[in-house]
Amino acid sequence: MKDITFVDLEVTLNTCRVVDIGAVRSDRTPFHENSFDNLLLFLHQVPYIGGHNILKHDLSYLKPQFEKAGCRQPKIIDTLYLSSLLFPEKLHHQLSESDRDLLRRLRSDHVPHGTDDERRAQADRIRARRHERGKPQARSELPELE
Q1: By CB count within 10 A, which of 4, 45, 87, 137 is most buried?
Q2: What is the C-alpha to C-alpha distance for residues 51 and 57, in angstroms, rounded to an integer?
């Protein structure tokens, strides 16, 4: 699957207002604005969009924007459900404190302009490789924050 764009919306808890939008295409082209109109242009002709918990969170804000603009909504891939398939031994698949710590570390030079979903995907790939090799997830192996 080549043409997937990961999308992440940051929403205020008290007003449920979108305050930031990030996305990255499979060719690593980033998007970071707070404009649904520009996001829809960025997503034009993208067959798939993905995100962690995109079905229950981000899509509730995105779907009305696609409808309002008369745009075709891409097919959805929710990494929350992929996480349960990759890591069935985990009791839940929300981001834990150690996951958030890992994401903070991945925000270093290794992923300069990535969205949270891109960093989550990279973190999932790291965990999957370590799981396959039976290697523990040592924090000392992670890049340090600047």
Answers
A1: 4
A2: 9
> Using 50, 70 and 90 to split pLDDT, how confident is the model at 12?
confident
CA distance 60 to 89: 29
* Distance separating alpha carbons of residues 146 and 142, to the nearest angstrom: 12
Query: 122 φ, ψ to 5°?
Result: -65, -40
Do the beta carbons of residue 116 and residue 30 sit within 8 Å?
Answer: no
What value does the mean pLDDT of the chain take? 76
**What whole-number distance in Å separates Cα of residue 34 and Cα of residue 75?**
22
d(CA 7, CA 97): 21
- State pTM to two decimals: 0.60
Whole-angstrom distance, CA of residue 92 vs CA of residue 71: 34
pLDDT tens track for 36-68? 999 999 999 899 999 988 998 999 999 999 999
Tokens for 81, please give them: 């459900």
